[in-house]
Amino acid sequence: MDRGYIPGAVVLVNHGGDKVWHKAYGFAQLVPEKVAMEQEMMFDLASVTKPVATATSIMILAERGLLRLTDQVSDYVPGFSRYVRGDTTLADEALIWHLLTHTSGLPAYINAAEAARVFGSSTKTETMVDYISKLPKLSGPGERYLYSCLGFITLNQIIIRVTGQNVSEFAQENIFRPLEMRYTTFNPDETLKLICVPTELQEDGLPLRGIVHDPLARLQGGISGNAGLFATASDLARYCQMMLNGGILGETRILSPVTVSRMTQIIDTPAKAARGYGWVIKLGQSWVGGDLLPDGGYGHTGYTGTSIWIDPRTQTFIIILTNRVHPKDDGEVDSLRSTIANIVASAILE
Fold it and tell me: What is the pTM assigned to this prediction?
């Protein structure tokens, strides 16, 4: 913060089921006036949406027998194109688990300004996914790791096709409300916007507040499989503890222990990426899990400066929420994440 990398942060650390650190630092807002950071402010989680809302929803649907991770994406998104090899032969069909592990062959993103010209100022997820499905694939499924927001936008459409609910509705009903995550939502209402940490300044000179920063999520009205979720550190702690407990918090079960275990293991593919179903898995040094915590931990980061890290071996989780994109998109938090993880690891004595 002193170097100007971020205006402020909220850090929460839990070990052995006990909250051992929860503090707010710096400022929630610098422009148009300074506002101090508070512990219970809501953050735009950006891509932390992917595991917490989207991947968890997909795993719930798999547990209920409503889909299989080995189902072809084209079963739910007709016309989902296949990779065309140099000899013009077609690669295999992409499966749902390829979307979860960023190995489907989809590009990383599409230009949001161009998408707005194609779709107008707003569009339904179905329309966007129809466009995404026809994009040329960059590799055969499972052959190459390429982090893809487009894959998780597609997963939201699969949730819609299976349940009739979008990821916001399904996750609220099946994850957040059961876990009593009262300050976790897509599209915060006017009351909740008052406690949202602002992000980047817009053309009118005012920052986004309670409106998703990610352009493609914003184009879909704030609800997307790749981004759009807002939450407090305290709410995320309830989710993280549920995962550490093997899918249960108190008397409320969200996932089975077997599902949590499978979701958070490295999925072996020719792409050789340290990825589970929606999660980054620690294998050696990690820019989010640090240098000292053991392999096998898992977590995710968000473009806005957010991250969660869960370590089953030490029964520890670390939540770091910053507003690195305020007032401009030029903050840096990678070194902060790894440094905090190392400090936490050094304090674990049993």
Answer: 0.97
